[in-house]
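User: Fold this; tokens only.

Assistant: Input:
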Amino acid sequence: MRVLARDGEHETEIQRSRFRCRLTRVTDADAAAEVVAAVRREHWSASHHCTALRIGPAAEIQRSSDDGEPAGTAGVPMLEVLTRRELTDVVAVVTRWFGGTKLGAGGLVRAYGSAVSEALDVIGTHRRARHTELLLAVPHADAGRLENAVRANGIRVTGVEYGGDVAIAVQVPDATAFHTWLAERTGGAVEAIETGTTDVEIADR
């Protein structure tokens, strides 16, 4: 799944109608409702505030609203963009100021979908990947070299603590591959203990 790189807004104009898309990271439906309410208060004079949201580890919660636009011409295409981009924990609100020219059903579908798609292109997304957390106990004499090797291999180091040994905490996408690499690098002298899992966000390129 993917999440927003940050909250943000982007505005486009189509045949004198303004479409401003606000994208916000949220963790539940109540938070999403608060975002929608805030947009309504801020842009009270707008014609419509159409919405789409996907929330949950696998986007189990999905909703959309046309807010007075013809049925299926606003919320649904917005939700389709979020789905196609594999986004979750997000609410999209597209505020429209009517410019006097009717766009027709097809034009509205394209306009609302494009508003979300263009906003996502500007704001950016991160890929959410499950990583295994491990703890390495390394003798002081070897800790510096091993930590440098870990970092040089693009492995995430989340903490280093000095005690009787040096404890190096890492997060890896493939625990089996890391165990193999560590054994080869240290001749089996250092053991990695798995302590849990976590979701890590990686910027899309």
